[in-house]
Write a structure and sequence with these properties.
The protein has 66 residues and is α+β, with helices and mostly antiparallel strands. It has helices spanning 4-27, 36-40; strands at residues 49-53, 59-63. A two-stranded antiparallel ribbon has the order 1-2.
Length: 66
Amino acid sequence: MYILFVLIPLSLVFVAGAVWAFFWAAESGQFDDLQSAGWDILLEDEPAVARTPTSSGQSSIEPTSD
């Protein structure tokens, strides 16, 4: 029974923190663009680039063919 005197205020603090976090996220623009993140996975990536050594010892960048 005495544990309720701890758990009820603790749960109220937790709920207040969750509500504050939600309103903070909404005010900071976290929910403004919900569609573009889902479309990003469908876009093509840039072609991979491989580094190949040259005769001078430095590496040059050449695109790879996959």
